[in-house]
C-alpha cells in the first residue's frame, strides 16, 4: 500500500508505546518521529515537517488529570494553529475528551488502541490537514493574483485640482465604511482606478476585488454572469456555476458601465441589494451574499431615470456615496504631473531616458483630451516609442492630427456637444484604420470593448 505523505509526531513518556506506535505507523505514513519529552516540541515542530501530532495527556508518574496534555495542546495551538493534534490517554475520561476537543484537538484516542482504529483516526486527520494546506495555498495564490490584478496603487490626485481633491477627501472618509459608491465620469477619467483605490482603503482590502464590465458583456450573458446559473438552466449551462456576486463574497464587486444593465435585471439587482440574497438562474434557492458594491458609468443616469430607462429606486440604492470624476480638460493643472508620471513609466518600460520639451508640454495643455487620462497615457507611450532625439517634441505627440479630427470647437464649447464630437472622432478613426477596431481603439485611447460600446451607441 502507498504510504500517505504525512509527517506524524508521537509524543509520550512511555518508550514502549513510542516504539510500537512508530513500527506500526511507519508502514502507512512517510515520516514518523517520536518524542519522549514535550519540552522538545518547540524545536521539533519548528523544523516544519510535522503535520499531525499524537499527544499523550499525562507525563508525570501518578498523574492522570490530563492537565499537562491540555497545557501542551494550548502551546501547540499558539505556536502553529494549522497543526492537527490527536490526543491520547489511557483513561477513558469522557469529560477530558470533550474538554480537549473544545480546546482545539481534532480527535481523541484511548490507550491501548486498536491499530485499525488508530490508522482510521490518523488517515482522517491527514485528510483534514491536506485540505487545510490546499486552502492555505489557494489563499496565498489568490492574494498574489489579487495584488497583480490591482497593481501598485495609482496616486489619484496630486492635490492641484480642487474637484479631484474633494473626490479624494470623500474616498478617504467613506471607503472604510461599507457604503455603496457610484462613480460618474467620461471614459478614461479613471473610474476603475478609483474603484480599486476605494477597495484598497476598505476593510475588505485583503479580500477579492471582482470587476464586471457590463459594457463588454453580451446582454444575454448579464444575468448568468452576475448571478450564476444551475446546470441545465439554458442550453450551454453544462454545470452549476457561481456568478460574480458569489465570487465577490467578502470582498468588493465593481459593476462597470452600470448604465448598460437592462431594466429587468435592474430589478433583480435591486432585490439582491435590498435583501442581500441572490438566486442563480434556473434555481429557486436564495443564497446569502456579503459584498461591497461599487458602480461606475459614463452614461447620464439621472437623465435615464427621467426617460424611464434606469430605475430611480436602484439609483438611490447604488449612489449612497457619489463621485464625479472631472474630465482632463477641466483639470489642466494636473496634466504636467500626469504626463511626467507616464513618461517615467514608459521610459522604464522601453529603456529610454527621454525628456519632454517645452513646446510639447505647452501642446499637452492646449489639447482638449476627449479620451481623458487614457488618451494622455497612449499619446505619451507612442511618443516615447517613436521619438528620435533626447527629448519628446510637439511633433512626436501627433496632437494636431488628432485635433483635426475633432469637429468645430475645442475647450469648454466642445463639452456642449460632446456626443457628436465623440461620434465624429470614432467615425474618423474607423475610416482611417479601415475598420480595424484595435488600431482605432488605440488611436482613440479606448479599450476595444469601450469602442464597441460606443459604435453600438452611435449605430456605427
Ligand atoms: N490618476 C491617474 N494616474 C495615472 N493613471 C491613471 C489615473 N487615472 C487613470 N489612469 C490610467 O488611465 C487609464 C484609464 O483609467 P480607467 O480605466 O480607470 O478609466 P475609466 O474611467 O474606468 O475608463 P472607461 O470608462 O473607458 O472604462 C488606465 O490606464 C489608468 O491606469
From TrEMBL:
It comes from the Bacteria. PROSITE patterns: RESPONSE_REGULATORY (PS50110), SIGMA54_INTERACT_2 (PS00676), SIGMA54_INTERACT_3 (PS00688), SIGMA54_INTERACT_4 (PS50045). The keyword Nucleotide-binding applies. Pfam families: AAA_lid_14 (PF25601), HTH_8 (PF02954), Response_reg (PF00072), Sigma54_activat (PF00158). Residues 157-385 form the Sigma-54 factor interaction domain. CDD domains: AAA. Keywords: ATP-binding, DNA-binding, Nucleotide-binding, Phosphoprotein, Transcription, Transcription regulation. GO terms for molecular function: ATP binding; sequence-specific DNA binding. GO terms for biological process: phosphorelay signal transduction system; regulation of DNA-templated transcription. The modification 4-aspartylphosphate is found at residue 56. Residues 7-126 form the Response regulatory domain. This is DNA-binding NtrC family response regulator.
Amino acid at each position: 500500500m502507498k504510504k500517505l505523505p504525512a509527517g506524524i509526531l508521537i509524543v509520550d513518556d512511555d518508550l514502549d508505546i513510542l516504539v510500537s506506535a512508530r513500527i506500526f505507523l511507519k508502514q502507512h505514513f512517510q515520516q514518523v518521529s517520536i518524542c519522549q519529552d514535550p519540552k522538545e516540541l518547540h524545536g521539533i515542530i519548528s523544523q516544519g515537517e510535522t503535520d499531525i501530532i499524537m499527544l499523550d495527556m499525562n507525563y508525570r508518574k501518578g498523574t492522570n488529570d490530563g492537565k499537562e496534555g491540555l497545557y501542551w495542546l494550548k502551546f501547540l495551538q499558539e505556536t502553529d494553529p494549522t497543526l492537527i493534534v490527536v490526543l491520547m490517554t489511557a483513561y477513558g475520561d469522557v469529560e477530558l475528551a470533550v474538554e480537549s476537543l473544545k480546546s482545539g484537538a481534532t480527535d481523541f484516542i484511548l490507550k491501548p488502541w486498536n491499530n485499525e482504529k488508530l490508522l482510521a483516526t490518523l488517515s482522517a486527520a491527514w485528510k483534514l490537514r491536506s485540505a487545510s494546506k490546499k486552502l492555505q495555498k489557494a489563499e496565498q495564490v489568490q492574494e498574489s493574483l489579487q495584488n497583480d490584478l490591482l497593481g501598485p496603487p495609482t496616486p489619484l490626485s496630486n492635490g492641484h485640482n480642487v474637484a479631484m481633491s474633494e473626490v479624494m477627501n470623500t474616498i478617504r472618509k467613506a471607503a472604510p465604511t461599507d457604503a455603496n459608491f457610484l462613480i460618474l465620469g467620461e471614459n478614461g477619467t479613471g473610474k476603475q482606478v478609483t474603484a480599486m483605490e476605494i477597495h484598497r482603503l476598505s476593510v475588505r482590502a485583503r479580500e477579492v476585488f471582482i470587476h464586471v464590465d457590463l459594457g463588454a458583456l453580451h446582454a444575454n450573458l448579464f444575468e448568468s454572469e452576475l448571478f450564476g446559473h444551475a446546470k441545465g438552466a439554458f442550453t450551454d449551462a453544462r454545470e452549476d456555476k457561481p456568478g460574480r456576486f458569489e465570487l465577490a463574497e467578502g470582498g468588493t464587486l465593481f459593476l462597470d458601465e452600470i448604465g448598460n444593465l437592462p431594466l429587468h435585471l435592474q430589478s433583480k439587482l435591486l432585490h439582491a441589494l435590498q435583501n442581500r440574497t441572490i438566486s442563480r438562474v434556473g434555481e429557486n434557492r436564495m443564497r446569502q451574499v456579503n459584498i461591497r458594491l461599487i458602480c461606475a458609468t459614463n452614461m447620464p443616469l439621472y437623465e435615464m431615470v427621467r426617460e424611464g430607462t434606469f430605475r430611480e429606486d436602484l439609483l438611490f440604492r447604488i449612489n449612497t456615496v457619489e463621485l464625479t470624476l472631472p474630465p482632463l480638460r477641466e483639470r489642466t493643472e494636473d496634466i504636467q504631473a500626469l504626463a511626467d508620471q507616464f513618461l517615467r513609466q514608459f521610459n522604464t518600460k522601453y529603456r529610454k531616458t527621454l525628456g519632454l520639451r517645452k513646446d510639447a508640454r505647452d501642446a499637452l495643455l492646449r489639447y482638449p483630451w476627449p479620451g481623458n487620462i487614457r488618451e494622455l497615457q497612449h499619446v505619451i507611450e507612442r511618443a516615447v516609442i517613436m521619438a528620435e532625439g533626447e527629448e519628446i517634441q510637439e511633433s512626436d505627440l501627433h496632437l494636431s492630427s488628432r485635433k483635426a479630427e475633432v469637429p468645430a470647437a475645442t475647450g469648454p464649447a466642445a463639452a456642449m456637444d460632446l456626443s457628436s464630437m465623440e461620434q465624429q472622432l470614432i467615425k474618423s478613426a474607423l475610416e482611417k484604420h479601415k475598420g480595424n477596431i484595435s488600431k482605432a481603439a488605440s488611436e482613440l485611447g479606448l479599450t476595444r470593448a469601450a469602442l464597441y460600446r460606443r459604435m453600438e451607441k452611435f449605430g456605427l
